[in-house]
Write a structure and sequence with these properties.
The protein is α+β, with helices and mostly antiparallel strands. Helices cover about 20% and strands about 25% of the residues.
């Protein structure tokens, strides 16, 4: 009976794009297609125009930084039975000094772009992803020629991740300030930032200065032993000993 079932979306994607497909995954009902940057535009052209797919809308474009992916700064194995339920190592990306920043492993793909497509015709969704070939200057072709609505999405990814969309008609920052330095969603960008801003009443203008606070990690203080009644018990014992 299974031989008579129609092919899944993943099977049709593999059959249609062949060598252009890096990977197709299905997880919890969601299909993700990974393609190379060189096939980026041609794959989207087919996904939009061919009757078997008809993904007419690009509803989201976002950047991804995989630096430190899978690494955890929470220590869940070396904590004693007393005290807090978790300790923190403080080595995760974004919680360090610049000289101690994490480094990507050799040949590790760091930056990627993920696009969420919607087919109104077939009532179907698809995630299309590709890794940027060059970590030093991450570049992928712009989708604005196929999906004009991707304009501001790509500007956001450029602003926050520094991913360049080749062919974009107006690629400039959209969320950060005009003179902002760096890309705040990159994993090696410090959480405390690089500069702080204050108004100088004597100079009567805004002053930009190096940030003056030290990076720190906020640890949720979850106590393993319930001590809500310890104080009341201690006071009751003290009163009983005093004969009150």
């Amino acid at each position: 009976m299974s031989e008579n079932l129609p092919p899944t979306l993943a099977q049709r994607l593999n059959a249609r794009f062949g060598a252009d497909v890096v990977a197709v995954t299905e997880w919890r009902g969601e299909t993700t297609l990974e393609v190379s940057a060189t096939s980026w535009l041609s794959v989207f052209q087919a996904l939009r125009d061919e009757a078997d797919f008809r993904f007419e809308q690009a509803i989201d474009v976002c950047g991804i930084d995989y630096m430190g992916y899978g690494q955890s700064e929470w220590d869940t194995t070396g904590i004693s039975s007393q005290g807090f339920s978790r300790g923190v190592e403080g080595q995760g990306p974004g919680r360090f000094r610049w000289s101690e920043r994490p480094q990507a492993a050799p040949n590790e793909k760091r930056y990627a772009v993920a696009v969420q497509l919607l087919s109104i015709t077939h009532n179907r969704r698809l995630c299309v992803k590709c890794y940027c070939p060059d970590d030093a200057l991450p570049i992928v072709p712009s989708l604005t020629g196929l999906f004009p609505g991707a304009n501001w999405f790509e500007r956001e990814a450029f602003d926050l991740y520094g991913i360049v969309f080749e062919g974009h008609p107006d690629l400039r920052r959209i969320l950060t300030d005009y003179g902002f330095v760096g890309h705040p969603f990159r994993k090696d960008f410090p959480l405390i930032g690089n500069v702080e801003v204050r108004y100088d009443s004597e100079k009567q203008r805004v002053i930009y200065e190096p940030v003056s606070i030290d990076p720190r990690v906020l640890v949720p203080r979850v106590i393993r032993d319930d001590s809500r009644y310890d104080q009341a018990q201690a006071e009751a014992a003290a009163n009983a000993a005093a004969g009150k």
